[in-house]
Structure prediction request, 286 residues.
Amino acid sequence: MKLVWTLEITIFISILGLALHIQPGALAKEKMPEEGIVEIDFPDATEAKVEVNITGTLFSLAAKAVQNEEDSALFNFLNGLKALHVRVYDTESLRGKQPKDIVKFYEQKLLKANWEVLARIKENGNMTGVYTLTQNDVIRGLFVVVSEERQDTGVGEEQKETVVVNLAGKVDLSKLSELNGIAGMDLKLPDLRAKREKISPIKEYRRKAIGYMVGEKWDEAIAQLEQILEIGDYLMSDYATLASIYLAKGDIGKCYYYLSRAYELEEDKETAVALRSKASSLAEKR
Prediction:
């Protein structure tokens, strides 16, 4: 009995650490330099092919340029912005890393700093991740990662081009397209105003799952989390939550299995393989 109790406590601690995204030796949440501003620091990328940095002063000048025009909303939008940072990477710049690696890196970074996933869009081979920092129902920061297939006319092969955009200030999603002219380039920003109503209800599935867990309705909670797979990729915390549910149900094998999936996302292959082996061993004994 003592061995079982110790095992459950050990598993619970592992789950808790994963669910809260706690890294060894770092209990505090990662903080951004300023409100809405994110350091673009993907470690495996070399110098960006294109780099754009626009400060609040330039936004103020742009706002004054349209002040006398009829579009007062555009003036207010530009006047409320603090900074725009853009990086464009080609395949060579990423040194063999895939766009999904960039999305994963920044998503984990942003979620630790209390940003939220606004949208994950996968279509026609392209990937887009959109994240927001919201305070009092006002968007104070926007972060977008867009990876698209581009035709290399020199060799006739498709190459990945990845665009990273960070916008800080009071952000009006309906006016984002206006930034293309200011930055002098196509920022590849999706039509967020149109897509906002169609954004997958992943957050709602997670909320309902937690509600069912509080009521110990384990199967209903599992059903909610499984809905996420039909829409987008699981986060590490989703696998950890499933592991905790199966632990509560007394299914240690599936608990180990979902913990292994969480460690796979962390790219801790050694731990993932060990947990998967334990899961298989328990399944064979049934």
Remarks:
- Residues 50-198 form one domain.
- Confidence is low (pLDDT under 50) at residues 1-13, 16-32, 194-198.
- The CA atoms of residues 140 and 170 lie 5 Å apart.
- The beta strands are 50-55, 81-90, 116-123, 126-135, 138-152, 157-169.
